[in-house]
Design goal:
The protein is of the alpha/beta class. It contains 14 helices and 15 strands. Strand 12 and strand 13 form a beta hairpin.
Length: 412
């Protein structure tokens, strides 16, 4: 994911006053009986503008738990997923995460679908020495100031998606205009595209910021059109993406410019339809069409369809699966839930949950993985309602597409 929602709430403010026993945050986790159920907390925004993606995450996370339980669990212990609605709000997320740790005694946390929310969750889990697997797209959580040995970032980050998309759309001399959501996620995507732009010899002709949750983009379109860009980069998420693309097409921007997004969202394409999204190019962590070439994608698709009345998994849904499944694989290798052993197992883990090989980089615990570049199909090209995209490219899993450890602030 990916974006922040409650951008007016700081992480420090979100955490202040959550509990009178703040000093207790430094206490080590309780030692739990080895025979008890393994509890995984799962905060995600079930209400709000990212609810469709969040509900898909829950379905896929539940599938990961089911597959492990069907095989006997972890060292004979069953796994339980405890889902909580963070309402796309940093303060709410911090409260729910603290409850999951204090009241529900979870062994680890997976989740979040927003830059600010995941950082609020990260503050709580870091203070309580609880493992957290973030499945929200963010560059910030990889930087040394927010790093925690307990935190692993299973999602792609904006640097990865923008680098891959720009590589296949920007050219020497391309003129690029940007429409950017004015909060952390939008700014991270803009930074990534402009970095790639400089390396590829493209030039910026202007950028316009829009508020989170804007319904009307009509006032921005004449200004963007007057810039006469070859490429229009729309850097936002969820319903913002759908509304912005639809109105750009209504204003004829697609006849003047190629529309490019950092992340091409499955659910928003379904919501708006093929006509508005026709030819739009963007990045993705997952697309069900990978099943044609990747056995783990075929296995994931088949299991998901069997559990969900034949429906295919979505991009952000897949994060729920890979985030939970990688954690459970590490717990299996660790033989249980001992925090230090699970961290060591995650750091050494080589896994292929649904999309090919992945592993967590040592310095920042970023999941090194492939990045897809997709193009939305014309209606006439679609074989069925789920046949949404063409895979233009798959950038292979490599640390070369990541910011370096030293750039993130880690010692060389």
């Amino acid at each position: 994911m990916t974006s922040q929602g409650s951008h007016s709430i700081t992480r420090r403010g979100a955490l202040a006053g959550l509990t009178a026993g703040t000093a207790a945050l430094a206490m080590p986790a309780l030692v739990r009986a080895q025979g008890e159920t393994i509890r995984i907390g799962f905060p995600t925004p079930l209400t709000g503008p990212f609810a469709a993606e969040a509900k898909d995450q829950v379905k896929s996370a539940e599938l990961a738990v089911k597959l492990v339980n069907d095989k006997g669990g972890i060292a004979g212990r069953k796994v339980e997923l405890l889902v909580r609605d963070d309402k796309l709000n940093a303060g709410e997320a911090a409260t729910r995460t603290l409850e999951l740790i204090e009241k529900d005694k979870v062994h680890a946390i997976v989740g979040a679908l927003s830059s600010a929310v995941q950082l609020a969750v990260n503050e709580v889990t870091r203070a309580r020495s609880v493992i957290y697997v973030s499945i929200s797209q963010s560059d910030t959580i990889n930087e040394v100031k927010d790093f925690s040995r307990f935190t692993f970032h299973e999602a792609l980050n904006p640097h990865m998606t923008t680098a891959a998309v720009a590589k296949h759309t920007f050219k020497q001399g391309s003129k690029v205009a940007y429409l950017v959501a004015d909060y952390a996620y939008g700014h991270e995507m803009l930074r990534g595209f402009k970095r790639a732009q400089a390396a590829l010899g493209a030039t910026s002709v202007g950028e316009i910021l829009h508020p989170f949750g804007a319904a009307d983009y009509s006032t921005f379109m004449p200004r963007l059109r007057s810039m006469r860009p070859d490429i229009l980069c729309i850097c936002n998420f969820g319903r913002d993406q759908a509304n912005a693309i639809k109105q750009a097409v209504d204003f004829g921007m697609n006849r003047q410019s190629k529309i490019v997004v950092p992340v091409l969202l499955h659910n928003q394409r379904l919501a708006i339809g093929p006509e508005a999204f026709e030819g739009v190019i963007g990045g993705a962590n997952y697309y069900w069409g990978l099943e044609e070439t990747i056995p783990s994608a075929k296995a994931f698709n088949d299991a998901f369809k069997a559990a969900n009345s034949g429906a295919y998994p979505t991009d952000y849904g897949a994060y729920g699966f890979t985030g939970v499944y990688s954690l459970l694989l590490a717990m299996e290798k660790a033989g249980g839930t001992d925090t230090d052993k699970v961290i060591a197992a995650l750091e050494a883990l080589k896994y292929d949950a649904a999309k090919g090989p992945q592993h967590y980089r040592k310095c920042d615990h970023q999941s090194v993985q492939s990045v897809l570049v997709l193009e939305s199909k014309k209606k006439a090209e679609m074989k069925n309602e789920a046949d949404l995209f063409k895979v233009l490219a798959s950038e292979p899993a490599s640390e070369e597409i990541l910011r370096s450890c030293s750039e993130l602030g880690f010692p060389a």
